[in-house]
Design goal:
Two copies of one chain form a homodimer.
Chain A lengths: L6 E7 L28 H13 L3 E6 L3 H7 L8 E4 L4 H16 L4 E4 L5 E2 L2 H15 L4 E6 L10 E7 L7 E7 L4 H10 L2 E10 L1 H11 L1 H12 L4 H5 L7 H11 L3 E6 L3 E2 L4 H7 L7 E3 L6 E4 L3 E5 L4 E5 L4 E5 L3 E6 L6 H11 L6
Parallel strand pairs in A: 1-2, 1-4, 2-3, 6-10, 12-14, 13-15, 14-16
Antiparallel strand pairs in A: 4-9, 5-11, 6-9, 7-8, 7-9, 8-10, 16-17
Helix pairs in contact in A: 1-4, 3-6, 3-7, 3-9, 6-7, 6-9
């Protein structure tokens, strides 16, 4: 029997991706989009790289508004495996519900949680690290993957490596989880080699995860287990679940008491947090204009950056470095890679003043 | 009798305005567009500021493809006054044909030629200068308006002032016409106060203009007079007329022999040669995003420059200085004010490779 025989993948498919507006919208969030230009959405890629590890043992947890779109993207996935949240309650509720369901379905289960909207360019390294994480998790550890930093990123949280974990070469305890650092601090983290990026990937037994949650909020864990036992109580119980991320509810307190392990890995990971990251992913760092979409629609002169021609119209860019142009049928964004984070301010403004259909 | 009783305005309405692509196209050139944001096209404004001087004494010379559009823009103008060129033959042919027609219609005529796609923000100063030019032209001078330079423009030709013209205070002979200068030379022109911008405005008796032309190219003048005498010969004669600007054919050689006068004036003139000029005209120099069109469609954060929302879509601009964004239903341009001149390279590329309907 392989360690993976009872390994389940949980894919929380949520988040508006407002920094990727106007591609990503409330009605069509980031995970439904093809951001790598190969015709597959981020969600499809996420499933693609997990299927070799889990076969059909996977759950997708998504908003009720997106369930139909998710089913359409994943024709090979059993509709029963696509769980609809009545409303967004942050990652602890989504992942905790999956844990409570799996606890009942498979007493031997180890689950791994992987966001639907990240990219991994080295799936073999990813598979190998997840397999090792599953082995560690079978010993009742909560396990996370720690991504080797490739630059001094200020947009990610970090994991500080603790003592080596005996019996698992290369695996460490998590000393602590660190919030997004300043540029100076990030550079020290990279140079010091004792930090990894926190990609929010957690592997563990459902029982372990829920028991860790119960230590801080027993009522939260009870409600999740109640929903799993009586799905018809979902609407009654879901809306009052706390809004909290799994990191804060479980991973950080557990790390503080030495109960989280980390498997270091360099799987070519990115969360594509904004158009600067997307531009880098698509090769714009090489001094050219990268195009996500039909390159025949783009005419660039003396420019570098990213163009997303998404309305069928011609897009001409002249004399701009590190520019970002995102063309959609009803909204157009023009910014620079440097200011890509501020795109969310446009969305915030639109939510306030409308038109709402553009948000 | 006023000096203006026999003053005729000739408005050559041609030119593709490729540096204002994608607003200006072969099928809808610059003069047909509202570039000041008040609902009137440049052509309409040109007529508006000439009517107080000429009443109904005006001729518009335009391409056969644009005659219907011109008539639609100018419902108060007699359709007979809108002359269609069978093909574009540069400004000497267009203005010379008008001269030949007016020579027959009104033996006392003085004509002034004013491009259909320039702006004048001080029409009173313009009127006053034109009136003075007409008075001088009645003495058989060819007269031009010399625009006071307000900055060291490198995109315009200059007029060097010669001796004062006796009997007309403030009016000078033209010493010579100077090609577009380098930035250094332009600055010297501005500092020296002896140069004016050449706005291509010429005032003179039709006979004087044609006789000056005949000195260099008698056949050219003969053919223009033949077309005016027998309009049915237009197609036969027009296509073989030389392609030359009125500046080269008439104004420069006449200035070299001391037969051109210049009336200095500061009428707030601009030829809106590119989006940089348009941005300045619309107030973008004051550190904000100027909008030509529906400002409700534009959301700008930490940006300056010009946005032309022309497709009904929302245009969001984030973190870009001196940016130019021009949105039309079938093509989008993103550039900087600094590189606005290079927009014509996009048009040149499209003419080569298509799609032609976008040029």
């Amino acid at each position: 029997m392989s360690a993976l025989d009872h390994f389940w993948a949980v894919i929380p498919a949520g988040g508006a991706g407002t920094r990727l507006w106007p591609v990503s919208r409330a009605a069509a969030p980031k995970f439904l989009h093809d951001l790598t230009g190969d015709g597959r959405s981020l969600l499809q890629h996420t499933v693609d790289r997990l299927v070799p590890l889990v076969e059909d043992r996977l759950l997708v947890v998504t908003g009720v508004a997106h369930r139909e779109a998710v089913l359409a993207e994943l024709p090979a996935v059993d509709p029963e495996a696509v769980v609809a949240e009545p409303s967004p309650r942050d990652s602890m509720a989504a992942i905790g519900l999956a844990a409570a369901m799996l606890e009942r379905v498979d007493p031997l289960a180890v689950m791994g949680s992987f966001a639907a909207d990240h990219v991994v360019t080295d799936p073999a390294a990813f598979e190998e690290a997840v397999s090792r994480a599953v082995e560690v998790a079978q010993e009742d550890w909560l396990v996370t993957l720690g991504i080797t930093p490739t630059y001094a990123a200020t947009g990610f949280g970090y994991i500080r490596l603790g003592e080596p974990l005996s019996g698992h070469p290369g695996v460490h305890l998590v000393a602590d989880f660190v919030e997004k650092p300043s540029a100076d601090v990030a550079q020290r983290y990279v140079d010091g080699r004792a930090h990894r990026w926190n990609a929010g990937m957690f592997v563990g037994r459902p029982r372990v995860l829920l028991d860790l949650l119960a230590e801080g909020d027993p009522d939260f864990a009870d409600r999740l287990r109640a929903i799993a036992a009586e799905p018809e109580r979902m609407d009654e119980l879901w809306a009052r679940l706390p809004l909290i991320a799994v990191d804060h509810a479980v991973a950080e307190p557990a790390a503080a008491t030495g109960r989280v392990a980390v498997v270091p890995v360099d799987p070519g990971w990115d969360d594509i947090g904004d158009f600067d990251a997307l531009a880098g992913l698509l090769g714009a760092d090489e001094g050219r204009v990268s195009v996500l979409g039909d390159a025949d629609l783009v005419r660039a002169i003396a420019s570098t950056g990213l163009v997303v021609p998404g309305s069928g119209r011609l897009v001409a860019v002249v004399g701009l470095d590190d520019v970002v142009v995102v063309d959609t049928p009803d909204a157009l964004l023009v910014t620079s890679r440097e200011h890509a984070q501020r795109v969310k301010e446009i969305v915030a403004g639109l939510r306030e003043t409308g038109p709402q259909h553009l948000t």
